[in-house]
Amino acid sequence: MQVRLSLLLALFPSALALWPQPTSINTGKTALKLAHGFDIKLSVPNAPSDLKDAVSRAKGFLKTDALAALVIDRGASAAGALKSAKSLPSLTVEFAAKNGKVKSISEEAIAPIGTRDEGYTLSVPADGSPAVLKANSTLGLFRGLQTFGQIWFDFSGTTYTLEAPIQISDKPAYPYRGFMLDTARNFYPVADIKRTLDAMSWVKINTLHWHVVDSQSFPLQIPGFEKLSKNGAYNPSAVYTPKDVKDIVSYAAARGIDVIPEIDTPGHTSVISKSFPEHIACAEAKPWASFANEPPAGQLRLASAATTKFTASLLKAAAGLFPGQFFSTGGDEINANCYTQDKQTQSDLSASGKTFAQALDSFTQASHAALRSAGKSAVVWEVLTPLHTEMVLDNPVTLANDTVVMVWISSEHVQAVAQSGHRLVHAASDYFYLDCGHGGWVGAFPTGNSWCDPFKTWQHAYVFDPVANLTAAQASLVLGGQSLLWSEQSSPANLDATVWPRAASTAELFWSGPGGDVQKALSRLHEVVYRFRQRGVAANSLQPEWCVLRPGDCDLTA
Amino acid sequence: MQVRLSLLLALFPSALALWPQPTSINTGKTALKLAHGFDIKLSVPNAPSDLKDAVSRAKGFLKTDALAALVIDRGASAAGALKSAKSLPSLTVEFAAKNGKVKSISEEAIAPIGTRDEGYTLSVPADGSPAVLKANSTLGLFRGLQTFGQIWFDFSGTTYTLEAPIQISDKPAYPYRGFMLDTARNFYPVADIKRTLDAMSWVKINTLHWHVVDSQSFPLQIPGFEKLSKNGAYNPSAVYTPKDVKDIVSYAAARGIDVIPEIDTPGHTSVISKSFPEHIACAEAKPWASFANEPPAGQLRLASAATTKFTASLLKAAAGLFPGQFFSTGGDEINANCYTQDKQTQSDLSASGKTFAQALDSFTQASHAALRSAGKSAVVWEVLTPLHTEMVLDNPVTLANDTVVMVWISSEHVQAVAQSGHRLVHAASDYFYLDCGHGGWVGAFPTGNSWCDPFKTWQHAYVFDPVANLTAAQASLVLGGQSLLWSEQSSPANLDATVWPRAASTAELFWSGPGGDVQKALSRLHEVVYRFRQRGVAANSLQPEWCVLRPGDCDLTA
């Protein structure tokens, strides 16, 4: 009986394993294989080169994925059906907007959020006539190409699906689907970031939130501020030059990904003291725990006019490296004692007659004005003031309407942030922090555990409700969400396996919308893991392979 | 002031960063560099080829490690001292036992535990005269070569130490220092195992406990039982052929590592049902949770004479593949309901008039007798009987005196196991399980957490006391300990970063003995991470690099 059930499963290897799940999908039960001369044909006037490149990569993956179906017989039972299956000669990639201007993927990827069109339709007939991918944008076509690439399995060199015809109509539930990488606590070479961008694009993540510098190191080389990376990078090769940044930003954009850089201020800036000691309060002050949440201590002298000006110039110069709409000025974890103990800050406050909160407000306004003058909108963390209340909730810092707030401390703060009227991104530590659960990392603390224990499983993030306790009006402020990798205990060594496939779980939540079923999602997510591996990304196993090949059989209730 | 302190740290980059810490070490403060033509000279009569190979690898690492000192200036402040430093022309590797027979490392590595001599002395003079490594065994020489390789840093192509002269006298506190890898839940290619063996040897781990098969897959090809791997491997290439096993075992032995294979019985054997269904009770019975701790269910019909004979033959055949002294028959997680529901087992019990416990005893005796006839001593897990008591504690299974018991369920069971009089290995889930803390993996269980939460940090294992609550006599039964990687959620993708450097922490605990100080150990452990990376093992970061380069500055109290 069990053997027969397995055979059935082998013949019908679950629903088409697309990730993220499209808005609408209809599939049949007909076998279809790619013709030997299968081609992807562009029917796009003046097709931009990044679209041509995307097509070329998609064709490559169709050959190199060579992913055997994740069922017990790895597809052998389909061999008969494949012999008589029709061959798909081509996929036509069609720009559908009449009189629409054809822009490059790269241009569309960095257009203002909310204005991007990521939707597409995909039709894969069972009768041997060409498949058609249509969209009103090259960005939509790019998303659709990723979907097309997930349809196919390999059996003995034949690339096939058993579920033709396929009709898909798809667009994202949320315009922001991100991944944050911290390249300051530990450095990641450009190649690691590019590999991550590729992986992100495969699951339709459209934003890299790049927490590029922090107190520990300053790897970003900023024109006019080269001293910062010269003195602040871990070593001369642990630097992102303007050329590297351009390379990364271009690579991302060509893959439908916008890059939001972050220069966290006024806290998290200790390393600036190596180049501009006059701007940093409590630089490397000890004991660090009295002056910062983690070593080394050091914060911009936010009450100083000179430091405020320096910061504005720095942000503006950095903003020039990035073509996207958003730039994050951080704002988290401001330590009150650092400023209380800093004579200059105290004297600056006295001289100006400002309270600390007013000084923070002025500093933030100046920073954001500088970004605005560079054409950017600001992003901030929901911020701890020195009194440990939330900046956006009840302190006097005034954030412009277009400011986006990232909720990180707790998902319980979402409602309050939404009440402030700002657009928000879900990035809460209790759901989306991929680094949690790996123990304490500070020294001389044998019993230390992770502050954000436990480990965030893919299931936990997957069942998150982005609009819990929000009114409809508040819900409209939710741009989307992201998973995050802080790097105190991360490095290129564990990057792939720590991020994947968990970041894909969050990607589906915000593309397909909430309400997904972890039980049904699991086998599709296994396919993400196995397909990523075929493409050179070392995604980790979620279960024994025995379970992978027997969808449902390792469910708690099976 | 802080700058000056940093300079001082740069000049004296902490104690010599050896891992594991030697029994006795004296160091000076003189700079010494390797001569351009530096050589390692063997003064060993009829030097075995594995020793020659080890010397060759050691020489290679001296060139390719190229590890800059883990201090802020990466050793730049030593440049002056290096200019006038003496050059070390050579290391003489000397077999010191008078009239002693020179055996190969490989022979010595698999000699009965307790009879191996892993000690050595190492002298590195500061005056430019040759260094000398002495031991009474090639195994000791091999251990010493690893130590010698950890002495050196690189600065601009100069390989140097600042702490000559160096006198080391070293031997292990415990004869068993292991690492367990589960290659059944997910498969690891031979190359991953070899890379792991290399890494193990660098920190003087001397045992690979190879949990090679389990209920999920049977990758071990056993002569006479080829059907098991043919039907039970995940795919035809996910098989360890006898040639692969020989390759792995030889590779290990040449690196001073004994391999203890495990065929877990009578539980954890579901996969055998694909080839010998007559021997397996409750094969893939559902719901699995009623029949096993994890899917799929299936246990050897331990009350059947035929199955007992089959098992004995299987074990004996498998034992023939492995040259070492020990072979594990497992014995954990026997599910009572599986046997209660199995008509054949019930009728076998009736026919024999045996209680279940008596049948388990007979089965175990027969298995162990088969191993004994193959020249092996048995290893078992502390075992749950169907009544959830410990086999070795209060059930009637009689274990021969030479049986080694691995404590896994809890470190709290150590005392009771010791009271049974058996030699034991520390392998407790609450200290040494490297896979814990990554959430639940069974399907349809969004809130599932790891059963052995939390994640086991290196610090937690490091401060374990191997003889807590033991009398001196009981303490003498402690062979050592090991860290373990179960593979429900592990795979080649996360192998290196999950295992390293945490397994090194346990390696030092059992080589250097307990009482180590996590505060002092951290900077040495960072060096393990960075040196491993230079050698191609992707060990994970324990801290931001800022902390790595400033020993102590990220301590909780700093």
Oligomer: homodimer
How far apart are the first and last residues' alpha carbons of chain A, in Å? 15 Å
CATH architecture of the largest domain in chain A: Alpha-Beta Barrel
Helical/strand content category of chain A = alpha/beta
Helix count from the secondary structure assignment of chain A: 21
Question: What fraction, in percent, of the residue positions of chain A are helical?
Answer: 25-40%
- CATH fold field value of the largest domain in chain A: TIM Barrel
The most extensive interface between chains reads: A-B, 76 and 76 residues
Mean pLDDT of chain A: 94
Q: Write the CATH homologous superfamily of the largest domain in chain A.
A: Glycosidases
Beta-strand portion of chain A reads 15-25%
Shape of chain A: elongated
CATH class of the largest domain in chain A: Alpha Beta
Main sheet of chain A, how many strands, which sense, barrel?
Answer: 8 strands, parallel, barrel
Number of strands of chain A: 16
Strand order of the largest sheet of chain A: 7-8-9-12-13-14-15-16
What is the CA-atom radius of gyration of chain A, in angstroms? 25 Å
Number of domains of chain A: 2
Catalytic activity (chains A, B): Hydrolysis of terminal non-reducing N-acetyl-D-hexosamine residues in N-acetyl-beta-D-hexosaminides
Protein name (chains A, B): Beta-hexosaminidase
Domain Beta-hexosaminidase eukaryotic type N-terminal (chains A, B): 18-151
GO biological process, one term (chains A, B): glycosaminoglycan metabolic process
